[in-house]
Amino acid sequence: MSALKERLETDLSTAMKARDELRTRTLRMVLTAVKTEEVSGKRSRELSDDDVVKVLAREAKKRREAATAFADAGRTEQAQAEKDEGVVLDEYLPAQLGEAELTALVTDAIAETGAAGPRAMGQVMKAVNPKVAGRAEGGRVAAEVKRQLGA
User: Fold this and answer.
1) Which CATH number fits the domain that encloses residue 41?
2) 55: closest CA among 78, 119, 63, 42?
3) Is the domain of 74 the same as that of 106?
4) Highest-confidence segment of 51-55, 63-67, 112-116, 147-151
């Protein structure tokens, strides 16, 4: 079992004993997503820590999007609940890259690939994505690549 999944299960047990409803609900939800990912496809498999981080990032993104949607609809209580769940998930994700770090990584990837112009965006994204895995959202990375390539 991956160390991160084991930590999630241990923290779930602790949250249940402490009767922490928010943490219990959030960790149950993410562990369900991890287990679903493990059995998806043709055969079941054990997820690595990197795979668990991807699932966590996907779930955190869902929470941010749902919070925005609820806030736009004037449903502040539900929006706050989604934000609170996102905060719990953020504790398990790697630290997010700052703007300066992301800019530097994209600049290095452009220099490394020799890319020029908007048509080379896919080539640069292919070089940058492994370096930022889990530390920056794809949309943020794409926006920075587009900005630097002058797209």
Assistant:
1) 1.10.1510.10
2) 63
3) no
4) 63-67
- Domain encompassing residue 141: 99-149
Average pLDDT over residues 36-55: 87
Q: Above 80 in pLDDT, residue 112?
A: yes
What integer pLDDT is reported at residue 34 of this predicted model? 92
- Do the Cβ atoms of 124 and 149 come closer than 8 Å? yes
Label residue 74 left, alpha or beta by phi (over 0 means left) and psi (-120 to 50 means alpha): left
- Residues 44 and 40: their CA atoms lie apart, in Å, by 7
Long-range contacts of the stretch 121-125 (C-beta < 8 A, 24+): 121/145, 121/146, 121/149, 121/151, 124/149
- Would you say how long the chain is, in residues? 151
Cα dihedral: 12, 15, 21, 27 (round 10) = -20
Whether the Cβ atoms of residue 33 and residue 60 lie closer than 8 Å to each other: no
Residue 139, number of CB atoms within 10 A of its CB: 9
